[in-house]
Amino acid sequence: QSQLAESGGGLVQPGGSLRLSCVASGFTLDSYAIGWYRLAPGKERETVSCISYRGRNTHYTDSVKGRFTISRDNAANTVYLQMDDLKPEDAGLYYCAAGPGTTGCPLRENYWGPGTQVTVSS
Length: 122
Prior knowledge:
- The chain is mainly beta.
- It has strands at 3-7, 10-12, 18-25, 33-39, 46-51, 58-60, 68-73, 78-83, 92-99, 111-112, 116-120.
- Strands 2, 4, 5, 6, 9, 10 and 11 form a 7-stranded mixed sheet that branches. A 4-stranded antiparallel sheet has the order 1-3-8-7, with no helix packed on it.
- The protein is globular, with a radius of gyration of 13 Å.
């Protein structure tokens, strides 16, 4: 069964850090662009960050630029999202999705995971 699984979420104080992981099973990630998306109550789904299949192109939404870093280890079939200097508005359910795309973000979501919850609160 082909699927993605996220991990690394949790409760962190403002200014803290988390590293999210997105691991693929049943297929290899190296042919896909990967996106990290955030769902928060009362807000539309937001594309937080994306990375092209070789990792040469990345995208960040303006609110996380300079604080979040996306990377991938195709040998480990994993994509990471390092989140530093977290703010309360970063909270939400983060999920990853894989799909075709050569310039950064997936053009469609062929695979996605259930997500991992991030809470930023003092």
